[in-house]
Fold this protein.
Amino acid sequence: MQEASIKNRSLEYLSGLTETQLISLVTKLQWPSFKAQQIHSWIYKKCISSIDEMTDLSVKDRDFLNKNYKLSPLELTQKQISEDKTIKYLWKLNGGNQVESVRMFLEDHDSYSACISSQVGCAVGCPFCATGKIGFKRNLKAAEIVDQILGIQKDTKERISNVVFMGQGEPLLNYDEVLTAMNLIKDSVGIGARHITLSTSGIVPNIKKLADEKLQITLAISLHAPDQRTREILVPISKKYPISELMESLHYYYEKTKRRITIEYVMLDGINDQIEKAKELSDLIKGLHCHINLIPYNPIEHSEIKGQRSEIRIQDSHLPSPISDLCLKRPPRKRIYNFKDVLEKRSGKKVTVRKERGVDIAAACGQLANIFNKNLEKGQE
Ligand code: SAH
Ligand code: SF4
Protein backbone atom coordinates (compact mmCIF):
# COMPACT_ATOMS: atom_id res chain seq x y z
CA MET A 1 0.00 0.00 0.00
CA GLN A 2 1.36 3.37 -0.95
CA GLU A 3 0.86 6.65 0.89
CA ALA A 4 -1.90 7.75 -1.48
CA SER A 5 -4.03 4.65 -1.01
CA ILE A 6 -4.57 5.06 2.71
CA LYS A 7 -6.07 8.51 2.29
CA ASN A 8 -9.81 9.01 2.77
CA ARG A 9 -10.01 6.40 5.54
CA SER A 10 -11.26 7.51 8.95
CA LEU A 11 -8.38 8.53 11.18
CA GLU A 12 -6.74 5.76 13.20
CA TYR A 13 -4.64 6.05 16.34
CA LEU A 14 -0.90 5.47 16.45
CA SER A 15 -0.94 4.96 20.18
CA GLY A 16 -1.88 1.37 20.91
CA LEU A 17 0.01 -0.08 17.93
CA THR A 18 2.70 -2.64 18.77
CA GLU A 19 6.19 -2.37 17.31
CA THR A 20 5.31 -5.18 14.90
CA GLN A 21 2.15 -3.35 13.78
CA LEU A 22 4.19 -0.18 13.27
CA ILE A 23 6.71 -2.13 11.18
CA SER A 24 3.93 -3.44 8.97
CA LEU A 25 2.48 0.07 8.72
CA VAL A 26 5.75 1.63 7.55
CA THR A 27 6.32 -1.33 5.20
CA LYS A 28 2.91 -0.71 3.60
CA LEU A 29 3.83 2.95 3.24
CA GLN A 30 7.12 1.91 1.65
CA TRP A 31 9.05 3.77 4.33
CA PRO A 32 12.30 2.35 5.71
CA SER A 33 11.66 0.06 8.70
CA PHE A 34 13.77 2.11 11.16
CA LYS A 35 10.97 4.70 11.11
CA ALA A 36 8.79 2.19 12.95
CA GLN A 37 11.27 2.15 15.86
CA GLN A 38 11.42 5.93 15.83
CA ILE A 39 7.62 6.28 16.00
CA HIS A 40 7.42 3.55 18.65
CA SER A 41 9.94 5.34 20.82
CA TRP A 42 8.14 8.70 20.47
CA ILE A 43 4.82 7.18 21.50
CA TYR A 44 5.86 4.90 24.36
CA LYS A 45 9.15 6.24 25.71
CA LYS A 46 9.07 9.96 25.06
CA CYS A 47 5.32 10.31 25.65
CA ILE A 48 4.80 13.14 23.18
CA SER A 49 1.58 15.14 22.84
CA SER A 50 1.52 15.59 19.06
CA ILE A 51 2.85 13.98 15.89
CA ASP A 52 4.71 17.24 15.20
CA GLU A 53 7.04 16.42 18.09
CA MET A 54 8.43 13.41 16.15
CA THR A 55 11.36 15.60 15.13
CA ASP A 56 13.52 12.85 13.65
CA LEU A 57 10.86 12.28 10.97
CA SER A 58 10.85 14.62 7.99
CA VAL A 59 8.24 17.39 7.83
CA LYS A 60 6.71 15.51 4.87
CA ASP A 61 6.39 12.30 6.91
CA ARG A 62 4.87 14.16 9.86
CA ASP A 63 2.40 15.91 7.55
CA PHE A 64 1.40 12.56 6.13
CA LEU A 65 0.90 11.05 9.60
CA ASN A 66 -1.06 14.12 10.75
CA LYS A 67 -3.42 13.81 7.80
CA ASN A 68 -4.05 10.11 8.31
CA TYR A 69 -3.62 9.37 12.00
CA LYS A 70 -4.32 10.74 15.41
CA LEU A 71 -1.80 10.22 18.18
CA SER A 72 -4.03 9.38 21.14
CA PRO A 73 -7.64 8.30 21.72
CA LEU A 74 -7.85 10.14 25.07
CA GLU A 75 -8.36 13.80 25.79
CA LEU A 76 -7.58 15.06 29.28
CA THR A 77 -10.64 16.95 30.49
CA GLN A 78 -10.05 17.32 34.21
CA LYS A 79 -7.46 16.70 36.84
CA GLN A 80 -7.64 16.93 40.62
CA ILE A 81 -4.83 16.70 43.16
CA SER A 82 -5.44 15.31 46.62
CA GLU A 83 -3.91 16.56 49.86
CA ASP A 84 -1.73 13.42 49.83
CA LYS A 85 -0.61 14.29 46.24
CA THR A 86 -2.67 11.53 44.63
CA ILE A 87 -3.81 12.73 41.22
CA LYS A 88 -7.15 11.81 39.63
CA TYR A 89 -7.57 12.22 35.88
CA LEU A 90 -10.75 12.40 33.83
CA TRP A 91 -10.35 11.47 30.16
CA LYS A 92 -12.82 12.01 27.34
CA LEU A 93 -13.07 9.12 24.91
CA ASN A 94 -14.04 9.04 21.29
CA GLY A 95 -17.86 9.05 21.29
CA GLY A 96 -18.16 11.24 24.38
CA ASN A 97 -17.89 8.78 27.28
CA GLN A 98 -15.50 9.62 30.10
CA VAL A 99 -13.24 7.48 32.21
CA GLU A 100 -10.89 7.97 35.15
CA SER A 101 -7.39 6.99 36.25
CA VAL A 102 -5.43 7.70 39.42
CA ARG A 103 -1.72 8.20 40.03
CA MET A 104 -0.42 7.33 43.50
CA PHE A 105 2.97 7.64 45.12
CA LEU A 106 4.24 4.40 46.66
CA GLU A 107 6.39 5.48 49.60
CA ASP A 108 7.83 2.00 50.19
CA HIS A 109 9.13 1.80 46.63
CA ASP A 110 9.77 5.49 46.04
CA SER A 111 7.87 5.17 42.77
CA TYR A 112 4.54 5.90 41.13
CA SER A 113 1.66 3.57 40.47
CA ALA A 114 -1.20 4.09 38.00
CA CYS A 115 -4.66 2.77 38.76
CA ILE A 116 -6.35 2.40 35.38
CA SER A 117 -9.83 1.66 34.04
CA SER A 118 -10.78 -1.13 31.66
CA GLN A 119 -14.45 -0.27 31.02
CA VAL A 120 -16.75 2.74 31.20
CA GLY A 121 -18.92 1.80 34.18
CA CYS A 122 -19.35 -1.82 35.21
CA ALA A 123 -22.07 -4.44 34.87
CA VAL A 124 -21.25 -6.36 38.05
CA GLY A 125 -23.02 -3.86 40.32
CA CYS A 126 -21.39 -4.40 43.71
CA PRO A 127 -23.49 -2.28 46.10
CA PHE A 128 -20.48 -0.63 47.77
CA CYS A 129 -18.82 0.56 44.54
CA ALA A 130 -19.41 3.90 42.83
CA THR A 131 -18.51 2.49 39.40
CA GLY A 132 -21.15 -0.19 39.78
CA LYS A 133 -23.74 2.55 40.27
CA ILE A 134 -23.02 3.91 36.76
CA GLY A 135 -23.94 0.59 35.15
CA PHE A 136 -22.09 -0.73 32.11
CA LYS A 137 -21.53 1.70 29.23
CA ARG A 138 -18.82 0.17 27.07
CA ASN A 139 -15.51 -1.71 26.94
CA LEU A 140 -12.31 0.25 26.47
CA LYS A 141 -10.05 -0.54 23.55
CA ALA A 142 -6.47 -1.60 24.35
CA ALA A 143 -5.18 1.76 23.14
CA GLU A 144 -7.56 3.59 25.50
CA ILE A 145 -6.29 1.50 28.40
CA VAL A 146 -2.58 1.96 27.67
CA ASP A 147 -3.00 5.62 26.85
CA GLN A 148 -4.09 6.33 30.44
CA ILE A 149 -0.54 5.45 31.52
CA LEU A 150 1.06 7.42 28.70
CA GLY A 151 -1.19 10.41 29.44
CA ILE A 152 -0.23 10.40 33.11
CA GLN A 153 3.48 10.18 32.26
CA LYS A 154 3.03 12.98 29.74
CA ASP A 155 1.28 15.18 32.29
CA THR A 156 3.63 14.60 35.23
CA LYS A 157 6.90 14.04 33.32
CA GLU A 158 7.48 11.18 35.74
CA ARG A 159 7.70 7.49 35.02
CA ILE A 160 5.02 5.05 36.12
CA SER A 161 6.55 1.88 37.59
CA ASN A 162 3.45 -0.06 38.63
CA VAL A 163 0.06 -0.53 37.05
CA VAL A 164 -3.07 -1.79 38.77
CA PHE A 165 -6.30 -2.64 36.94
CA MET A 166 -8.37 -1.35 39.85
CA GLY A 167 -10.05 1.64 38.25
CA GLN A 168 -13.47 1.51 36.63
CA GLY A 169 -14.71 -1.74 35.18
CA GLU A 170 -14.29 -5.47 35.43
CA PRO A 171 -11.14 -6.26 33.40
CA LEU A 172 -11.98 -9.93 32.87
CA LEU A 173 -15.25 -8.95 31.18
CA ASN A 174 -13.14 -7.15 28.57
CA TYR A 175 -10.66 -9.97 28.24
CA ASP A 176 -9.14 -9.55 24.76
CA GLU A 177 -8.55 -5.80 24.95
CA VAL A 178 -7.16 -6.07 28.50
CA LEU A 179 -4.80 -8.85 27.44
CA THR A 180 -3.59 -6.80 24.46
CA ALA A 181 -3.17 -3.81 26.77
CA MET A 182 -1.13 -5.83 29.30
CA ASN A 183 1.18 -7.00 26.53
CA LEU A 184 1.60 -3.41 25.31
CA ILE A 185 2.31 -2.20 28.84
CA LYS A 186 4.94 -4.90 29.18
CA ASP A 187 6.56 -4.82 25.76
CA SER A 188 6.07 -1.23 24.59
CA VAL A 189 5.71 0.92 27.71
CA GLY A 190 8.37 -1.22 29.40
CA ILE A 191 6.67 -2.00 32.72
CA GLY A 192 7.46 -5.60 33.68
CA ALA A 193 4.62 -8.11 34.14
CA ARG A 194 5.51 -8.45 37.83
CA HIS A 195 4.63 -4.78 38.23
CA ILE A 196 1.14 -5.25 36.77
CA THR A 197 -1.81 -6.27 38.97
CA LEU A 198 -5.21 -7.24 37.61
CA SER A 199 -8.08 -7.14 40.08
CA THR A 200 -11.23 -9.12 39.31
CA SER A 201 -14.57 -9.80 40.94
CA GLY A 202 -14.10 -13.45 39.96
CA ILE A 203 -14.97 -14.28 36.34
CA VAL A 204 -14.04 -17.95 36.70
CA PRO A 205 -13.66 -19.06 33.04
CA ASN A 206 -11.47 -16.05 32.29
CA ILE A 207 -9.31 -16.60 35.39
CA LYS A 208 -8.52 -20.03 33.94
CA LYS A 209 -7.94 -18.57 30.49
CA LEU A 210 -5.59 -15.98 31.98
CA ALA A 211 -3.77 -18.73 33.89
CA ASP A 212 -3.08 -20.46 30.57
CA GLU A 213 -1.43 -17.28 29.20
CA LYS A 214 1.21 -17.82 31.93
CA LEU A 215 1.87 -14.11 32.35
CA GLN A 216 3.87 -13.11 35.38
CA ILE A 217 1.30 -10.53 36.49
CA THR A 218 -0.27 -10.48 39.96
CA LEU A 219 -3.89 -11.60 40.13
CA ALA A 220 -6.00 -9.92 42.82
CA ILE A 221 -9.41 -11.38 43.69
CA SER A 222 -12.17 -9.27 45.19
CA LEU A 223 -13.43 -11.95 47.54
CA HIS A 224 -15.06 -9.75 50.24
CA ALA A 225 -16.83 -12.63 52.00
CA PRO A 226 -15.91 -16.22 52.84
CA ASP A 227 -19.47 -17.52 52.55
CA GLN A 228 -21.66 -17.77 49.49
CA ARG A 229 -24.65 -15.97 50.97
CA THR A 230 -22.81 -12.79 51.97
CA ARG A 231 -20.73 -12.82 48.81
CA GLU A 232 -23.79 -12.97 46.60
CA ILE A 233 -24.95 -9.68 48.13
CA LEU A 234 -21.58 -7.96 47.98
CA VAL A 235 -20.43 -9.30 44.60
CA PRO A 236 -23.57 -10.25 42.63
CA ILE A 237 -21.61 -12.10 39.89
CA SER A 238 -20.98 -14.70 42.57
CA LYS A 239 -24.43 -16.14 41.83
CA LYS A 240 -23.06 -17.14 38.45
CA TYR A 241 -19.57 -18.11 39.64
CA PRO A 242 -19.89 -19.51 43.18
CA ILE A 243 -17.07 -19.43 45.74
CA SER A 244 -16.30 -23.15 45.32
CA GLU A 245 -15.62 -22.70 41.58
CA LEU A 246 -13.74 -19.46 42.23
CA MET A 247 -11.40 -21.15 44.72
CA GLU A 248 -10.78 -24.00 42.31
CA SER A 249 -9.84 -21.48 39.59
CA LEU A 250 -7.41 -19.76 41.98
CA HIS A 251 -5.61 -23.01 42.73
CA TYR A 252 -5.45 -23.59 38.97
CA TYR A 253 -4.04 -20.07 38.46
CA TYR A 254 -1.28 -20.72 41.00
CA GLU A 255 -0.44 -24.12 39.49
CA LYS A 256 0.00 -22.58 36.05
CA THR A 257 1.81 -19.37 36.95
CA LYS A 258 3.37 -19.99 40.38
CA ARG A 259 2.39 -16.42 41.20
CA ARG A 260 1.08 -15.70 44.68
CA ILE A 261 -2.49 -14.41 44.58
CA THR A 262 -3.81 -11.34 46.39
CA ILE A 263 -7.15 -11.72 48.17
CA GLU A 264 -8.94 -8.38 48.49
CA TYR A 265 -11.49 -8.00 51.24
CA VAL A 266 -13.41 -4.74 51.61
CA MET A 267 -14.22 -4.24 55.30
CA LEU A 268 -17.87 -3.35 55.93
CA ASP A 269 -19.14 -2.71 59.41
CA GLY A 270 -21.40 -5.48 60.72
CA ILE A 271 -21.51 -7.23 57.35
CA ASN A 272 -18.25 -9.09 56.85
CA ASP A 273 -16.01 -7.92 59.68
CA GLN A 274 -16.98 -10.43 62.41
CA ILE A 275 -14.31 -12.69 63.94
CA GLU A 276 -16.28 -15.74 62.69
CA LYS A 277 -15.82 -14.43 59.15
CA ALA A 278 -12.06 -14.11 59.74
CA LYS A 279 -12.00 -17.76 60.84
CA GLU A 280 -14.14 -18.87 57.89
CA LEU A 281 -11.89 -16.94 55.54
CA SER A 282 -8.75 -18.51 56.90
CA ASP A 283 -10.29 -21.98 56.42
CA LEU A 284 -11.33 -21.12 52.87
CA ILE A 285 -7.85 -20.04 51.77
CA LYS A 286 -6.03 -22.93 53.43
CA GLY A 287 -3.51 -24.37 50.97
CA LEU A 288 -3.75 -21.40 48.59
CA HIS A 289 -0.58 -19.37 47.99
CA CYS A 290 -1.98 -15.94 48.74
CA HIS A 291 -1.75 -12.85 50.86
CA ILE A 292 -4.75 -10.90 52.06
CA ASN A 293 -5.32 -7.20 51.60
CA LEU A 294 -8.05 -5.72 53.79
CA ILE A 295 -9.61 -2.60 52.24
CA PRO A 296 -11.44 -0.36 54.72
CA TYR A 297 -14.63 0.70 52.93
CA ASN A 298 -14.39 4.12 51.28
CA PRO A 299 -17.65 6.03 51.40
CA ILE A 300 -19.39 6.61 48.10
CA GLU A 301 -22.15 9.04 47.09
CA HIS A 302 -20.15 11.95 48.26
CA SER A 303 -21.39 15.03 50.02
CA GLU A 304 -19.50 16.91 47.29
CA ILE A 305 -22.26 16.05 44.80
CA LYS A 306 -25.44 16.48 46.73
CA GLY A 307 -24.35 18.81 49.48
CA GLN A 308 -25.10 16.14 52.04
CA ARG A 309 -23.82 12.70 52.83
CA SER A 310 -26.25 10.02 51.83
CA GLU A 311 -26.40 6.46 53.05
CA ILE A 312 -26.20 3.37 50.92
CA ARG A 313 -28.32 0.53 52.17
CA ILE A 314 -28.30 -3.06 51.12
CA GLN A 315 -31.84 -4.26 50.78
CA ASP A 316 -32.35 -7.96 50.48
CA SER A 317 -35.62 -9.27 51.76
CA HIS A 318 -34.35 -12.84 51.75
CA LEU A 319 -31.80 -12.07 54.40
CA PRO A 320 -32.55 -11.95 58.09
CA SER A 321 -31.79 -8.80 60.00
CA PRO A 322 -29.17 -7.49 60.69
CA ILE A 323 -27.78 -8.11 57.18
CA SER A 324 -30.99 -7.17 55.38
CA ASP A 325 -31.00 -3.44 55.95
CA LEU A 326 -27.57 -2.36 57.01
CA CYS A 327 -26.03 0.93 56.27
CA LEU A 328 -22.68 0.54 54.54
CA LYS A 329 -19.93 1.95 56.65
CA ARG A 330 -16.34 1.40 57.54
CA PRO A 331 -15.73 -0.63 60.71
CA PRO A 332 -13.89 1.09 63.56
CA ARG A 333 -10.12 0.79 63.24
CA LYS A 334 -9.89 -1.55 66.24
CA ARG A 335 -12.31 -3.99 64.65
CA ILE A 336 -10.32 -4.04 61.40
CA TYR A 337 -7.10 -4.78 63.28
CA ASN A 338 -8.76 -7.50 65.41
CA PHE A 339 -9.96 -9.13 62.22
CA LYS A 340 -6.45 -8.85 60.80
CA ASP A 341 -4.84 -10.43 63.89
CA VAL A 342 -7.20 -13.39 63.97
CA LEU A 343 -6.85 -13.98 60.24
CA GLU A 344 -3.06 -13.70 60.36
CA LYS A 345 -2.66 -16.06 63.32
CA ARG A 346 -5.11 -18.65 62.09
CA SER A 347 -4.05 -18.68 58.43
CA GLY A 348 -0.33 -18.06 58.90
CA LYS A 349 -0.52 -15.78 55.87
CA LYS A 350 0.50 -12.19 55.41
CA VAL A 351 -2.40 -9.78 55.95
CA THR A 352 -2.11 -6.08 55.12
CA VAL A 353 -4.53 -3.18 55.51
CA ARG A 354 -4.67 -1.01 52.41
CA LYS A 355 -3.62 2.56 52.94
CA GLU A 356 -6.25 4.88 51.57
CA ARG A 357 -5.23 7.53 49.09
CA GLY A 358 -7.05 10.45 47.55
CA VAL A 359 -10.28 10.11 49.60
CA ASP A 360 -10.73 13.92 49.63
CA ILE A 361 -11.00 13.92 45.82
CA ALA A 362 -12.98 10.63 45.59
CA ALA A 363 -9.98 8.85 44.04
CA ALA A 364 -9.76 5.95 46.50
CA CYS A 365 -10.79 2.37 45.73
CA GLY A 366 -14.37 2.15 44.56
CA GLN A 367 -14.96 5.90 44.46
CA LEU A 368 -14.43 6.37 40.72
CA ALA A 369 -17.67 7.51 39.14
CA ASN A 370 -16.58 10.33 36.82
CA ILE A 371 -17.52 12.89 39.45
CA PHE A 372 -15.27 15.89 39.55
CA ASN A 373 -15.55 19.23 41.18
CA LYS A 374 -17.79 21.03 38.72
CA ASN A 375 -15.95 24.33 39.22
CA LEU A 376 -12.81 23.02 37.58
CA GLU A 377 -11.96 24.13 34.10
CA LYS A 378 -10.57 21.88 31.42
CA GLY A 379 -7.32 20.21 32.49
CA GLN A 380 -7.11 22.41 35.54
CA GLU A 381 -5.76 21.18 38.85
N1 SAH B 1 -13.76 -4.72 39.00
C1 SAH B 1 -12.55 -5.11 39.61
C2 SAH B 1 -11.51 -4.02 39.68
C3 SAH B 1 -11.98 -2.64 40.06
S1 SAH B 1 -12.47 -2.38 41.72
C4 SAH B 1 -12.81 -5.72 40.98
O1 SAH B 1 -13.91 -5.59 41.49
O2 SAH B 1 -11.90 -6.36 41.51
C5 SAH B 1 -10.93 -2.44 42.62
C6 SAH B 1 -11.10 -2.82 44.09
O3 SAH B 1 -11.78 -1.78 44.83
C7 SAH B 1 -11.93 -4.07 44.29
O4 SAH B 1 -11.36 -4.95 45.23
C8 SAH B 1 -13.22 -3.51 44.81
O5 SAH B 1 -13.98 -4.45 45.49
C9 SAH B 1 -12.74 -2.38 45.66
N2 SAH B 1 -13.79 -1.40 46.00
C10 SAH B 1 -14.86 -1.07 45.27
N3 SAH B 1 -15.61 -0.14 45.91
C11 SAH B 1 -14.99 0.11 47.09
C12 SAH B 1 -15.25 0.99 48.18
N4 SAH B 1 -16.29 1.82 48.18
N5 SAH B 1 -14.39 0.99 49.22
C13 SAH B 1 -13.29 0.19 49.21
N6 SAH B 1 -12.98 -0.65 48.20
C14 SAH B 1 -13.82 -0.71 47.16
FE1 SF4 C 1 -17.48 -3.58 39.06
FE2 SF4 C 1 -15.32 -4.02 40.58
FE3 SF4 C 1 -17.03 -2.02 41.17
FE4 SF4 C 1 -17.79 -4.56 41.52
S1 SF4 C 1 -16.13 -3.49 42.58
S2 SF4 C 1 -19.01 -2.92 40.54
S3 SF4 C 1 -16.76 -5.55 39.80
S4 SF4 C 1 -15.75 -2.17 39.35
The longest helix spans residues 142-156. The chain is about 35% helix and 20% strand. The first strand starts at residue 12 and ends at 13.
